[in-house]
């Protein structure tokens, strides 16, 4: 079993935590856009309270460990590895609870190139432990507004993890999945499940719009969030997202394998 000390060292060595690749400039831009309620940064969360940029800096300092000094406007962000470990512990507890309840679960990612392996291993372990891993809305169309205009994608599943692909892309693994922050894919999946009489997920696991979109619709949602993803942490602060693990969400896919082993061991699940 991977020890907490060994995982902490891994987080720092591969920059999943500690000094990460996300820049302060990028994070501050996200905070400004969130404060202005730009849908591209809200990614499915409809905030109950007014969050100004200073409020968001304070929240992200508390939840992630970034600098709480508004005058710091450049450089690389920092994630406190202790906050990452605490988030992983809470994440594992929610997995264990889902298994105890035999809860149906849904997994989805907007980062298929990086995080498909992480979620796929969770899907395998949850299924082996008796949870139904849901795969509704396979092949359904999702129209997402991007910086290049309106783009059409299709919902697909790889290793029972939902993602979107461009039409005509072959299902050959994570390489043809698209990166997206949009909550529209999870809304489409949940709507399809409801139309067909369920079951509906009792736990949604993912990132970006998969977590925020599900949490806003009342599903229990847990996932990973980077320092430029304030919506997840606002969702957590306002009670619509159960757990957010602060971590760089765009490093090499194999760097997440120790996190997988760690949470599955803490949840008493096998891979």
UniProtKB/TrEMBL annotation:
Pfam families: Phosphatase. This is Phosphatase.
């Amino acid at each position: 079993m991977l020890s907490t000390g060994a995982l902490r060292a891994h987080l720092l060595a591969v920059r999943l935590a500690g000094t990460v690749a996300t820049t302060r400039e990028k994070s501050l831009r996200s905070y400004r856009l969130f404060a202005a309620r730009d849908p591209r940064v809200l990614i499915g969360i409809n905030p109950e309270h007014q969050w100004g940029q200073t409020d968001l800096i304070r929240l992200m300092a508390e939840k992630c460990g970034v600098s709480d000094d508004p005058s710091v406007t450049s450089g690389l962000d920092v994630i406190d590895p202790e906050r990452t470990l605490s988030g992983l512990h809470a994440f594992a507890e929610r997995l264990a609870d889902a298994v105890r309840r035999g809860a149906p679960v849904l997994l989805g990612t907007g980062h298929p190139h990086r995080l498909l392996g992480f979620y796929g291993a969770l899907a395998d372990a949850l299924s082996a432990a008796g949870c139904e891993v849901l795969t509704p809305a396979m092949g359904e169309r999702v129209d997402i507004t991007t910086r290049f205009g309106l783009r059409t994608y299709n919902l697909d599943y790889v290793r029972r993890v939902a993602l979107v692909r461009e039409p005509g892309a072959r299902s050959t693994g994570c390489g043809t999945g698209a990166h997206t922050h949009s909550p529209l894919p999870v809304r489409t999946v949940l709507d399809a499940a409801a139309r067909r009489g369920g079951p509906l997920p009792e736990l949604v696991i993912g990132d970006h719009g998969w977590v925020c979109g599900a949490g806003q619709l009342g599903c229990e949602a847990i996932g990973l969030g980077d320092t430029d993803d304030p919506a997840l942490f606002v969702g957590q602060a306002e009670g619509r997202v159960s757990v957010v693990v602060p971590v760089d969400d765009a490093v090499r896919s194999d760097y997440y394998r120790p996190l997988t082993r760690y949470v599955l061991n803490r949840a008493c699940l096998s891979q």
